[in-house]
Amino acid sequence: MARPLTLVSAGPGTGKTLAVATWVREGRAPGPVAWVTLDRVVGVPSRFWGAVLTALERALEPGTLGVVQSPRSVDDEFVEALHGRLAGHQVVLVLDDVHELPADVLDGLDQLLRLPPEGLHVVLISRHDPSLSLHRHRLAGHLGEVRAADLAFTSAETRQLLEDGGVRLAEDGLAELVRISGGWAAGLRLALLSMEGASDPQRALRQFSGQQPLVAGYLDEEVMRSLGPARANFLLRTCVTDRICAPLAEVLTRDDSAPGLLRSLSGDHLLVHELGESGWSRYHPLLLQTLRSRLNRDELELEHELHRRASVWFEGAGEWLLALEHAVASDDLALSVRVGLGSSAVLVFSGHRSPLGSIISRICAQASPHDPELLMLRALGAYSQDNHARTVDLLPLVEAGVHELPEPRRTITLLNLRVLQALEARVAGDTEQLTRASEEAVRLVGGLRGEDAPGWAVFRGVPLKIVAVGQLWSGRPAAALRLLRQAMVFGQETFTGYAAVYHQGLTALALVMCGQVAAARREALAVVGQVEASPIERPHGSGPAWLALALAEQSLGHQETAASAGSRRECCGRWTRPVRASLSGAGPCAGSAHRRGPARRTKSARSFREGLCLSRADVCRAPAGRARDRGRARGGQC
Q: Where would I find the MalT-like winged helix domain in this sequence (predicted)?
């Protein structure tokens, strides 16, 4: 032990005392050990110092301390007396359960530790960092620290613990136990107790949770009770979310001391784990289950209110799926409808929208079949789960009742209706309906206030993008390009991940349809490079980019790369058909950057038409020589 002071700080059940006791038992201490287990009985200065002096006297040779008396308060005379008596002696003083000590005792201990006697090594075992001058010792290099993470069981240690207990689990069961327990020693011991003697340990593990009396009882007695009323109440009021940060904690508890409580819990406990430098923390799964079970059993109205507060906070933070999930959990139908249509609905534009449909199905399970807002939510849910037939059936029912709603609910519902009509028209390849519905959606979203529909306020540019798709299908790529750029200005922060791939792919397709082949190729390559490096969840979102790349490569005479890009299933069907239709009889490519008379425009349209009318397996079977000629002619123009 190179440092004079060591702090072992972690929550209950983490094995702090056992770890230090094992260290002592294995003879690794640098001298005899004086061990003092603390409780409230020794919480008086004279009793505390009496216990310390007695333990030191037993550890050392008789008479080493002489006539040093237990002080009522630590002063220079007492410190000098200990220095004189301990000089030349190596001894380890272990103080277990330092969190039990009151402030006046800690003040005296701090005074001694500022300049500890030579040869004295002090080990402090505590459930949280005591009020001592730890920073001073840390900066001086005099402090050794053991934290909850250092005490957590590894997978190998967990396997050994199971084997010692006569329990065998398959590798997936072991991984699940490590996940559930988080390496928490008490959690592992409780799980082991539930599996010992079970005919099927794997099944017993599946049933193991914080709601079991054995687990809940331990957490109540050893964790919640030790925290004190303020911390215990804080945990109960913040357990409704899967992760917690200081601003959210303050909203849930309505207590401005909440951020400080969260910081102290995150620093002290394995059961409250700080997620890196993100500002977020997560509660141990078993603790979370216990807290939620108690809240639901004893304070159901409070639970609903906490979910309402969480919903409002997450909506303001742009976490719209979580906002909807908490709105549903609050059992507040009006809030669920408002959040669902005003914010969470925009998740239909994400690459992974099926969770939205799952949550909406819980809202509408017992709702009125004639409410236009609930019908609209059902339609959003059906679309999110790719049930297009159900979506199409519901939309006319929404149309029939939407105009009876008061503002702004009428506009919000109508906006969702028009957007879904446009999206279903895109699926069906109905250019006229797509354009009509999306243009009205643009008008509607422009008239909404941000506070009425926070999600749509951020996604104002998306209806413009849908209009741009209609322009592409109608053979007006220049107009589509302008709309795509305008949409980017309106909602630049929304075009990330899947949305960015889709938007950039549309831009590349508009460029190639305008004859700007080199620019289209650069844009498409950037998109497909991103997709190949990090595959997105819904690869059809990259369809416009792959199609644009195939057409650009074909126009430049790069037959093999064109065929490779065109063989991607993402660019087939939905995109080749409408673009082919828009060019097949249109003659001029409206808005082309290079107009050189009817003959030139017809040739341009024909070159795209030849590429688009090929099979899905290979979009590029135009004669190589003619393709190279086209590539030379168009490459110079770009």
A: 221-301
Are 552 and 524 contacting, i.e. CB atoms less than 8 angstroms apart?
yes
End-to-end CA distance of the chain: 73
Looking at the structure, tell me whether residues 278 and 197 fall in a common domain. yes
Residue 115: Cβ within 10 Å count: 10
Are 137 and 113 in contact, with CB atoms under 8 Å apart?
yes
Domain extent, residue 249, equals 155-312
pLDDT tens across 131-166, in order?
A: 899 998 898 888 999 988 889 899 999 999 888 888
For 20-58, the pLDDT digits (tens) are 999 999 999 989 999 999 987 788 888 998 899 899 989
586 has a pLDDT exceeding 70: no
Look up residue 534 and give its amino acid: S
Query: Which of 483, 494, 485 has the alpha carbon at shortest distance from 458?
Result: 494
> Do residues 278 and 422 share a domain?
no
Per-residue confidence (pLDDT) for residue 119, from 0 to 100 = 86
Residue 140 burial (CB count, 10 A): 12
Same structural domain for residues 167 and 300?
yes
Residue 482 placed within a domain: no
**171, 194, 205, 209, 318 from 199: Cα distances, Å:** 18, 11, 12, 19, 48
Whole-Å CA distances, 527 to 60, 221, 496: 74, 56, 12
431, 508: one domain: no
pLDDT at 614 over 60: no
Q: Check whether residue 277 and residue 338 sit in a common domain.
A: no
Exposed (0-12), middle (13-18) or buried (19+): which is 594, by Cβ within 10 Å?
A: middle
Q: Give the separation between CA 591 and CA 504, rounded to whole angstroms.
A: 19
Please enumerate in sequence order all residues whose Cβ is within 8 A of that of 400, keeping only pairs 6 or more positions apart, or say none: 372
pLDDT digits (tens, 9 = 90+) for 435-450: 999 999 999 999 999 9
pTM for the model stands at 0.76
Q: Cis (ω within 30 of 0) for the bond into 408?
A: yes
Helix (H, G, I), strand (E, B) or coil at 356: helix
Last residue of a domain, one of 290, 312, 334: 312
275 token code pair: 């997620």
**Residues near 235 by Cβ (< 8 Å), separated by ≥ 6?**
224, 227, 265, 283, 287, 291
494, pLDDT greater than 60: no
Domain check: are 302 and 328 in the same one? no
